[in-house]
UniProtKB/TrEMBL annotation:
Residues 1-13 have a biased composition (Basic and acidic residues). This is GIPC PDZ domain containing family member 3. Residues 112-179 form the PDZ domain. It comes from the Eukaryota.
Length: 312
């Protein structure tokens, strides 16, 4: 029988081989840095090209453009994407394609017109720039305003009867105009955008546009929000585009305004609800300042449902 001493001696003759050291692991991959979002911009009436970045909402965007060209942010009435013309189908709303070119339309001449309201509706569709200026997005053919040659699409409404409306939202301005009494003249003080030479004779009028033009050119867009930081998102789906278009049409029909970003927000809100009652409650919590009437909310819910069915 082998003694413990012999076993110990044999173990000393054949020492245990050390375990191989593990292969060095690869360092963890660094998170992919998001590229800087730099946008090209010009003044619509003509200027060198500037570059802007680092904005999260429309007011900051205007401040960056103003800084690039040495002007005050309040000089900017609105912006269009990929066109220097006063083209309301190219109007900058809440989304900018990552390759879009931004044209800023600045204050031009001020003019005053006297209007007599002979019908309930003036034939104006109002929108705003998100930074304090409401302006004319559409003029209905055959309407009261259509017969006044001095009033043009793109004109900013600065005052009604010498009462300044700078800082008012589009729906507030539309409400003021609706509530003006019939057969009593009133005065509009308007500011037209400064125009390039090739735009001097332009006077755009439209009662209805078949579809708002899609201005995004890449697969992603920068979405500007009135509250919170801007986010880079995929371009809207077919359903989101169709539903937003339907809601924007209803906004014009009920309230006399066009606002693709507001329409988009309402569509987003609908995704989190399963009934029209829940949808109405969420709208009140998110967009309570608009005080949407119940029949309008029901029509919006139905329109979004129709868009969802149509797009599968």
């Amino acid at each position: 029988m082998e003694s413990a001493a012999a076993r110990e001696a044999r173990g000393a003759e054949a020492p245990r081989q050390p375990a191989p050291s593990p292969a060095p692991s690869e360092p963890p991959a660094a998170p992919r840095a998001r590229p800087r979002l730099v946008f090209r911009t010009q003044l619509a009436h003509g200027s060198p090209t500037g570059k802007i970045e680092g904005f999260t909402n429309v007011r900051e965007l205007y401040a960056k453009i103003a800084e690039a060209f040495g002007i005050a942010p309040t000089e900017i009435l609105f912006c269009t994407l990929n066109s220097h013309k006063v083209d309301m189908q190219k109007l900058l709303g809440g989304q900018i394609g990552l390759e879009d070119f931004i044209f800023a339309h600045v204050r031009g001449e001020t003019k005053e017109v006297e209007v007599t309201k002979t019908e309930d509706a003036l034939g104006l569709t109002i929108t705003d720039n998100g930074a304090g200026y409401a302006f004319i997005k559409r003029i209905k053919e055959g309407s009261i305003i259509n017969r006044i040659e001095a009033v043009c699409v793109g004109d900013s409404i600065e005052a009604i009867n010498d009462h300044s409306i700078v800082g008012c939202r589009h729906y507030e301005v539309a409400k003021m105009l609706r509530e003006l009494p019939k057969a009593q003249p009133f005065t509009l003080r308007l500011v037209q955008p400064k125009r390039a030479f090739d735009m001097i004779s332009q006077r755009s009028r439209s009662s209805k546009c078949p579809v708002e033009a899609k201005v995004t050119s890449g697969r992603e867009t920068l979405r500007l929000r009135s509250g919170g930081a801007a986010t880079v998102e995929e371009v809207p789906t077919e359903f989101e585009e169709e539903a937003s278009r339907k809601v924007d049409d209803l906004l014009e029909s009920y309230m006399g305004i066009r606002d693709p970003e507001l329409a988009s927000t309402m569509v987003e809100t609908s995704k989190k609800t399963v009934s029209v009652q829940e949808f109405a409650r969420r709208l009140d919590s998110v967009l309570g300042e608009f005080a949407f009437p119940d029949e309008f909310v029901v029509e919006v819910w139905a329109a979004i449902g129709e868009a969802r069915e149509a797009c599968g």
